[in-house]
Amino acid sequence: MIKLQDVTKVYRTDTVETLALNNINLSVEDGEFVSIMGPSGCGKSTLLNMMGLLDRPSDGQVTIDEKELKGYKEKALAKFRNEHLGFIFQSFHLIGDLPVVDNVELPLLYRGTSAKERKRLAEEALEAVGLKNRMKHYPSQLSGGQKQRVAIARAIVGKPSIILADEPTGNLDSNLGNEVMDILLSLNRDRKATIVMVTHDENMALKTNRIIRLYDGSLVN
After folding, report:
1. Which are the contacts of 26, defined by CB distance < 8 A and separation ≥ 6?
2. How many CB atoms lie within 10 A of CB 198?
3. Confidence grade of residue 166 (pLDDT, cut at 50, 70, 90)
4. CATH code at 162?
């Protein structure tokens, strides 16, 4: 489902060159739930951004669902992301002045989905994360765990084949973190979603199929 071949990422300024990823060769299979672990600054989020087509490698090739995307223009990449990928972020990235249901509908708005179908799919996604009764609430009226559930609902509303999660339990206590993790595990089990999760939490990582470890931008066996 995801394949990185000889992927290197270098960030350059006028005076500094930083090697963020060093010759990464990695495959994630269809339906797999994978964790990425490593110390802060080792390249975990950069690797996730490569998989999510949010950044381009300095060298190497990224293939998603058997599509090599190196030559895609930004508009085509954005369309591909919208249709195939769902993103979950540590800090939720909800829009405060929109009710929950409108936050969840956003990816469908960019697809041109009708208002009736957007609402139906948003309600379905919120029900999947146990928050259908909160659809008219605003983010400020929700707990941290509820906000992350809304973020998950937004990620799955378009039925993506791949979910990319950057520290999805990082801002939550252990109980709420376990609730969010249970939702991700059920999405992987019941919907066969391929999930890649960056985490610092070894206990959460051990619940996934495989742990990928990074150190100084390189894979560690």
Report:
1. 2, 3, 4, 7, 212, 219
2. 22
3. very high
4. 3.40.50.300
Structural domain span for residue 177:
31-42+73-220
Give the C-alpha separation, 52 to 46, whole Å: 10
> Are the C-beta atoms of 122 and 104 separated by less than 8 Å?
yes
Q: Which of 29, 33, 68, 74 is nearest to 205 (CA)?
A: 33
Q: Give residue-wise pLDDT tens across range 112-133.
A: 889 999 999 999 999 999 999 9
Residue 52 has what pLDDT? Answer: 92
**Stated pTM of the model:** 0.91
Tokens representing 147 are 């906000």
Question: How many whole angstroms separate alpha carbon 116 and alpha carbon 156?
Answer: 18
100-109 vs 144-156: helix axis angle to the nearest 10?
Answer: 30
Q: What b/e string do you get for 1-14 counting C-beta neighbours within 10 Å, with b at 16 or more?
A: bbbbeebebeeeee
Q: What is the pLDDT of residues 13-36, one digit of tens each?
A: 888 899 999 999 999 999 999 999
Number of domains in the chain: 1
Contact call for residues 86 and 160 (beta carbons, < 8 A): yes
